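User: Predict the structure for this protein chain, please.
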Amino acid sequence: MSSRPESLNAEERTPSRIAGLASVVEWPLIALCAVVGSVLRFAPASPMWLDEALTVNIAAAPLAEIGGLLRRDGHPPLYYFVLHGWIEIFGTGAGAVRALSGIVGLGLLAMVAVVGRRHGGPRLAGFTVAIVAVSPFAVRYSSEARMYELVSLLALVGWWLLDRALDPARSRRGVLAGLWLVSGALLLTHYWAMFLLAATGLGILWSAWRAPTPAQRRRSLEAAVAIAAGGVWFVPWVSAFAYQAAHTGTPWAKASRPTRVVSESFVDWAGGTGPEAVLLIAALAALLAMGLFGRVHEGRLELGPVGDGWRRRALWIIGATFAIGAAASTLSAAAYAGRYSSVIYPFAMLLVGAGLAGLPTPFVRVSALAVIAMLSLASIGLALKSDRTQAGEVGAELRRAARPGDLVVVCPDQLGPAIQRLAPTDVRVVRTPDLGDPRFVDWVDYADRQAASSVSVVADRILATAGTGTIWLVWSGSYRLAGPQCDELAGRLSAIRPGTSPEVQADPAKYFESASLIRLVAR
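Assistant: Here is the predicted structure, written as structure tokens:
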């Protein structure tokens, strides 16, 4: 019989009880994250902002016109063709078009499970699925009518195919053809895929050079050829791409330094710069580092060289893609947005999942996942509570007070796609400075055209077009290049029609895309 007090035995049993409870909770928590994240992909009901509305307007155009519209917009065509077919079946409603990205997002979760299981078994698959399911980045782009979730899915499918192509124990039947197709699809979905494929190709060639056997060298070279051959799909688009590179872009943005490319990516992955997002950035960065350098030895977490082959390949793809992309952006003075990181996002999350799955005890793993889930859901909740655009408020006022035949003018034209969707159908909506179709924004030589426009000429054209009818001016002075002209236009029209009535005040603190609405009645 033991001489130790019973209370000490109970205290000693407490850690094991906690560990047992954590082991029981681990998989239900993973499943809960997956279910909640899947539902959130279809939750947003906010009005579409510029990028979404413009995407839908282009995709809804006749199929033969999409290429020409994109030539003046700045993106490759594949997602727009896919969305065009989706719209033909389900229509252009916000929920309908966003559902396509939601379904693609569910496909990404499935692919994460497949790749994670192959590289680290059920635990890596489960934790990575949980992280991606509640990721502010993945939830956002699974619920926006944009191409970024499709980019992530295609990139991960390409990784899976490449892994099979290089594995000597697996058949390559159809795999090289799949690599060829996916590489072409990536190039036709987003231009940052060029940097991803370049990084991947360089890594494969390095592997071929160091291959220990001729058979492995041949496998590597064949995979590299399949990826390079994917460029054939891009050839018909080269002319449009060259024109876009010369004439479109974001002239108000600055070229991005490599540090900015990395930091903006983490900010987007965490859902912004709020308190919860900052903590989430720190957690993701720490787990990513543990996924790369951590290992458990005798129950203790230790740091060492980068682990097995898949982790080294993931590190190479992430680092080389960022390096090549940042260098190209700097040399071409091109801007960078965190959403472009969708090309490497799934690989980074696999490393984060590896860091989480590699924590030494069930209690630590469950606690870490719970913290990440809470921080992620807090960021997502803040996003769901706020609209990116004030178009909903402006549109509601127009539907309430505008009368058939009234003229609605949007300044700058970037407000047009979102406003036009919500304006009454019996009013005429035009954009400035050309009083053209508000559904589209012509990005060709945008800065030069804005500088060449005359506010007085635009104002005279608006007055002549409206005649004695009411003018509704939707405007914002916060846009670079065009904003000062919109301020001046509002002042000039108000001076000519002194019976100005402000209906909606811009609220830039609340809306990313804010706008004022004033009514100008002829006297």
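The two ends are 103 Å apart (CA to CA).
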